[in-house]
Amino acid sequence: MTSVDSSLSISHKCSNEAISMVLANSDLDDFVDVGNRLADAAGDVIRKYFRKSFDILDKEDLSPVTIADRAAEESMVKIIQEYFPSHAIYGEENGWKCKEDFADFVWVLDPIDGTKSFITGKPLFGTLIALLHKGKPILGIIDQPVLRERWIGINGRRTTLNGQEISARKCSHLSRAYLYTTSPHLFSGDAEVAFARLRNKVKVPLYGCDCYAYALLASGYVDLVVESGLKPYDFLSLIPVIEGAGGIITDWKGHQLSWEASSKAQAANFNVVAAGDKGVHQEALDTLQWAGPA
Predict the structure, then answer these.
(1) Residue 133 maps to a domain
(2) Is 277 marked as a binding-site residue?
(3) CB 199 within 8 A of CB 226
(4) What spatial distance separates the first Cα and last Cα of the chain, rounded to whole Å?
(5) Which of 58, 70, 97, 128 could covalently link to 89 via disulfide, CB atoms 3.0 to 4.6 Å apart?
(6) How many structural domains is the chain composed of?
(7) Which processes are annotated in GO (biological process) (predicted)?
(8) Mean pLDDT throughout 197-226?
């Protein structure tokens, strides 16, 4: 896992005006250093609760949340506010944190993507960290704190796993593809029908990895990941990771995934398809034949 240099520059602490003009390599390096601090802090919290006894609560949408989710997010929020007080934060558990309604830089956090995996002791969940600059993800981190694996995607650079560059793999045809989705039961209506068409055309459909499936795709072990109903904090961090590994990630219509974060923004649902091979990605889109909302 990447260690964080204790001599991190905090020259951005007072203002981000210069950064918003031009993002130099030194700026990106500082963002990555803070991103590593966030993942380290969240991981320390998560490991303390993993496979331990704790209360499980249900949110309004009936999805589970634990003390680990909330404590991990709070640990990351404190670090961002220390190093980049002018940056906004949008977290799964606490929403928008910023004095302003808009900000050039927004950190989007999902402390435990795959809470059901976490509470059942399966180490295939992950901490997701994204940094948006004027709406574009310029940094994405997928961190698996139990296995101590960290994927980092940076705009304009090759994706790394624990500091080593990685690449998605080529696949000759959809019929040769290994596909992952979190669960076939998460699809409904037209999306369920569309996914069934796709599932029947791939070589092997697999289930149960949450964000870890995208990490496996970036590392060249999986060819395709397809999901519906993802929130912005579920996928924004994945974009730099997948693209930096040579893969492609879009909505089901082939459009670029984007979300304009603000104090009034709603965390809408998105259908997502990611592939290591552009040809397989197009075959997947052609098979999904999606005409509904993105």
Answers:
(1) yes
(2) no
(3) no
(4) 35
(5) 97
(6) 2
(7) L-histidine biosynthetic process
(8) 98
Structure token pair of residue 182: 């979190």
Q: Are residues 212 and 96 in the same domain?
A: no
The answer to whether 92 is a known ligand-binding residue is yes
Q: Is 166 annotated as a binding residue?
A: no
* 112 marked as binding residue: yes
**Domain containing 207: what range?**
174-288
Asked whether the beta carbons of 24 and 65 are under 8 A apart, the reply is no
Task: Locate 195 and state its tokens.
Answer: 């996914």
Residue 157 has pLDDT above 70, yes or no: yes
pLDDT at 53: 83
The model's pTM: 0.89
- Residue 38 CA to residue 141 CA, distance in Å, equals 10
234 assigned ligand-binding residue: yes
pLDDT score recorded for residue 95: 83
Query: What is the structure's pLDDT at 21?
Result: 40
Structure tokens at 270: 């998105």
Is residue 279 domain-resident? yes
- Return phi, psi of residue 204, to 5°: -140, 120
Supply 267's token pair: 């965390």
Q: Based on the fold, state whether residues 189 and 139 are members of the same structural domain.
A: no
Residue where a domain terminates, one of 165, 191, 222? 165
User: What does the DSSP 8-state code read for residue 14?
Assistant: S
Percent pLDDT > 90 in the chain is: 78
Nearest to 71 by CA among 32, 42, 101, 108: 42
In contact, 80 and 38? CB cutoff 8 Å: yes
Closest CA to 211 of 96, 80, 90, 117: 117
Residues 118 and 238 in one domain: no
In a domain, residue 293? The reply is no
pLDDT, tens digit, for every residue of 99-137?
A: 888 899 999 999 999 999 999 999 999 999 999 999 999
Average pLDDT over residues 88-101: 88
Strands 224-230 and 178-181, how do they pair? Answer: parallel
Where does the pLDDT of residue 19 fall: very low under 50, low under 70, confident under 90, or very high at 90 and above?
Answer: very low
